[in-house]
Every structure is written in structure tokens, then in C-alpha cells.
Amino acid sequence: MRHLLLFLLASSPLLAQDPTEVAQDHLGVWRRPRSPFEGIVDQGAKVVDDRAEGTFFAYWVPPEWTAGRVLVAVHGTGGSPYEEIRDEIPLAREFGYLVVAVHWFDGAARSFFDTKKLHRVIERALDHVHAELGTDLERVAVCGFSRGGAVSYELAWLDRSGKITEKIGPL
Fold first, then answer.
1. How far apart, in whole angstroms, are the C-alpha atoms of residue 161 and residue 110?
2. Which of 56, 71, 72, 139 has a Cα-to-Cα distance from 166 of 20 to 30 A?
């Protein structure tokens, strides 16, 4: 019986460590009033739960994507990945870059992630997109709105591994 319980716990989707594409985020951000969730999903955006980090992210690939070009968008106070993607789709479509937007607010603690955790979440998001699309993400830029813009400077300083900012080049 104990072995069966351990097997069930180990195979539970709640304990999955890898980010997983889903229909809606597990935090319920997609249900917010005036959320652009349905509009961006209708345009092909993917939602990915990262339960290991207690968050999710979304990404959108333009029809004419120039492989390797990625913009990571970090929302501001009161924002969401869905709004960041909605706002970025017109330019991303025109200039051929992929958009990844991360959710970095912990609703239970009523606080934003510290920069180290946000950096880790972004790395996990980029690793997931790389695995899904089977292409290198050669040029990655980070931008943010309001509070997200402020933390983008901290992310650049923290990114000693070069996983994100070393790859920044002309989009």
C-alpha cells in the first residue's frame, strides 16, 4: 500500500516539476474582469503553468517568426502576462519576434517575487519555449511596464550566467 501511495504521489500532476502547457492558468488570472486572455489565445498564445515555482507564463509566436528572437515582457503592478502579450502582438507580428510574458505576483503572500526567483522563472520559461519549438533562442531582450520595467534593470545585473542579457542583440 505504501508503494502505491508513493507512486500516486510521484505521478501526480500537482507535483510535476516541468512547466506544462494548459488551457488556463492555475492561479485564475485568466478570469479577471477585462482580461485579454481569450483574445490572445484566439491569436495562438500558449499558457504554461509552472507549479514548481507557483506561477505561470504565456508565450506567442508570430506567423513569420525569425527564429531566435525573443522578447520577455514583465508586467507592472496590477498587470498580467495576458496584457503584456496583447500589447506586444502588433509589433511582434510586424518585426517577427516571439513574446514570453511571466506572472511574478504571489497572490497568497500579496507580494512580488524577489528578483532571483523572477530570474529563475524567466530561465524556466525560456527553457520550456526552447524545448517546445526546438530552436535556439539566440537574441533575448527583457522589457517591462512600470514595476516590471524597474525590475528589468535588476534582472540585467543579476544575470551573471548570461542566460538572458548576454544574448541581447538587435531584435
1. 29
2. 56
Give pLDDT tens digits along the chain (171 positions). 444 333 333 444 444 589 999 999 999 999 999 999 999 999 999 999 999 999 999 999 999 887 888 999 999 999 999 999 999 999 999 999 999 999 999 989 999 999 999 999 999 999 999 999 987 787 888 999 899 988 988 887 777 666 565 444 444
| Helix, strand, coil % in the chain, rounded to nearest 5 | 40, 20, 40
Contact 78, 33 (CB under 8 A): no
Q: For residue 60, give the nearest of 30, 96, 33 by alpha carbon.
A: 96
Coil, strand or helix at 140:
strand
Cα dist. 125→49, 97, 110 in Å? Answer: 10, 16, 22
Query: Residue 136's beta-bridge partner residues?
Result: none
* Cα separation, 118 vs 170, whole angstroms: 24
- Reading the block at residue 11, the C-alpha cell is 505521478
Q: Is residue 133 helix, strand or coil? A: helix
